[in-house]
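Entry 14. Ran structure prediction on the chain below.
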Amino acid sequence: MGALRLPFNEMTPCLLYADDDMFFIKPEVQQLQALQIALTVFKQVSGLSVNLSKSELMVSMGTHATQQQLTNVLGCRMATLPFTYLGLPLSNCGLMDLSVFNQALLIKWFWQWRKPQRTLCKSLFQQHIASNGLPDSPIFTLAISKSLPYCQFFFSHKIGNGKKIQLWNDNWEGQILSTLLPDLYTHALDTQITLIEVSQISNLRSLFRSISSDMANQELVQLQFILSDLVLNPQIEDDIKWKWNVSGQYTVQAGYRAMKDGPRILNGSQRIWKLQAPPRMKVFGWLALNNRLLTIDNLNKRGWPLVNRCVLCRVQGESIKHMLDECNFSKSVYSMLANTVPAMVPNLSNNTPPTQMLTDVSISKIQRETMLIMQFIIWRERCARTFSERGL
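Output, structure tokens:
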């Protein structure tokens, strides 16, 4: 390990071994131009050529456009972790993915902000926002927007006075209403309204623009049903819980592992997010794999006195496993699609349940995406039949 003095009086750490060199510099165009000058001088002095087409640039932070701009300066390829040095994957040598680590740190802020306990960091951040507002930075805004989906699915909220929990965007009672009721959500006047604000409104329709679609009206009935069980306690603050350990306490290490090793930690359901499908379909798939959909058996477990009967086959009780894996209606949908476009549907004659096909890496990605779309359509048909007489 050594250091290279670049123009502008910058000392750049570097690793030199045989014909493999690694430089650590700031992600700035000026720095890369200085490195390019140093490499040109090295070529002229030594007579050795520098093959930039075989070189790679790894940027730990910034937007894709920024990274592309930096790679264009040197004319090399863009790399991401893990990458190899001397034939070894560096992510397995103690180096972490800094972009994921940064998201884990941002989620820590979300966690501390939502906890009822006051901490020094929380107090200082509140004072800063009160004086200066949120940081006006595109990178900060982008980082926060990327972290919010993780916050929704990694945390659950314990309802107290309802002052912090948002009706649409927070995970409370095991559901995120913006994904459970997507058509109704598009009509909402205030997407950040809190539970206590909703509890003070007598007419729910006043929360929405003119509702014209049948599906949105059906979802409004479902929202009224959900809110009928809502009980707020003005003496207790809302609390937040990390769902993936016994203590319920979030740590940066736990967040990093959950985002980096999600397929192993979350029983494969994290693979859903890598499929090419609309976000609400991926959310649906995640909820189905984790038994979080509001099927009748899950509603019965919460004390809702409903007759448990599948509205699709009208024979057996309704559960996620029955609806998506065993129901004759669903099987006929899968078979119809397999006969129409067989290349896009996995082999249905094996013993893999259709829901588990969503995360089965032995099945091609396009086939998993097709199964996700079909299962989402089945779920929408189930909801349509539940709240009206309309069918396919």
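The mean pLDDT is 79. Will compare against last week's run tomorrow.
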